[in-house]
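=== RUN LOG ===
request id: a7f3
mode: sequence -> structure
chains: 1
length: 424
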Amino acid sequence: MRALLIGLALATALPPTIALGQPSVPTAKPENVGMSSERLARLKEGMSSLVQQGRLAGVVTLVARHGKVVEFDAAGKRDIAADLPMQKDSIFRIYSMSKPITGVAMMMLFEEGKWQLNDPVAKYVPEFADLKVYGTDAGGNMVLNAQTHAMTMRELMSHTGGFTYGYFSNTPVDKLQRDADLLNIDNTLDEFIKRLAKLPLNAQPGSDWHYSISTDIQGYIVQKLSGMPFEQFLEQRIFKPLNMADTGFFVPAGKLKRLAEFYEYGADGHLQVVHGRINHNFAARPALSSGGGGLVSTAADYLRFCQMLLNGGKLDGVRLLSPRTVDLMRTNVLSPAMTAPSPGAGFGLGIAVYTDAVAAGGYYGKGTFFWGGAAGTWFWIDPTEDLIVIGMIQQIAGTGAAAVAGVPDVRGLSHSYVYQAIVD
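=== RESULT ===
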């Protein structure tokens, strides 16, 4: 009886189509695409439980299989102080989930013959022609070494070019990048490149995988090769064709009420608003169009982007990429000796890919690709299961005792909740 009631509830909750931008995306009962309604309900129940425990402010989850949405739910608050509920159309800072979008922009230009994978990056960014590599001598003093080979576009696309980020590790070059204030939203892309060109690389190109500002550099290259501002390229070539109406580098005034607040655990263990640069004023258009982390979006919009990739570069009759190019993007280019982005994962061109399902957690079909954002957003695309899963939260650990355990592992939990619901 419980299974019947859950199935009826889900069927009632999901109309035949959901307006995910325009046009609408079809929905289906889980059973019609080889999933169990009763089992899939564990995803909603699990996320709602985290909200009720005070461990999450709010969350939106979306599951689509065989091109149809089978679960789309919102729980908790998008603004605790104002007592505003999280909604399915809430807008989120997706931060590094901007990276796959920038990667698609790069690959569109790759298909047009604007660049090649083995080209030196300096061919398109001459300011990088004489970049040195940080090192130390026997006495621990800084020395600047020549590159053993010129950094390639393949390396730039895969975070193996020798750059670092400034914030996700703490090397001497990270400190130099922080001091240079590279990612200040008041910098233009031109200013960003100008400042970066004065700094050394963190490592030799091709020596290891290291999460970095490479994707912001890619945004500059898109701008240069296309002859139009980077934000304009994304709007005209990706967002409008895919009808991603709520995706951009800022939130227009008429949509601000839908922007979810950004939280962390305070010293008292309770959730508090994040302040500082990471949570800048998203109501204003920034000077820096950060391809690495500047976009806002909705679960619905991001589904359209993911479905395009899962479809081999095409959605609703609009083709952005060829199937072969999408396959190239999700092909691991890292050598076995390199650091992995996460257990069981490698990295392709602009996106991570699982290479070992067991090491990654026991699920995933062959070729599953994925990424996430600093505020907790996540997604994965499983071509074997014809599956897309998207999760949106706005939360980091913060400080104090409650932060020790960190943000709940919503990504890992969602993996278990979704895959155990596949019964075909």
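=== NOTES ===
The chain is about 30% helix and 15% strand.
Residues 37-52 form the longest helix (16 residues).
=== END ===
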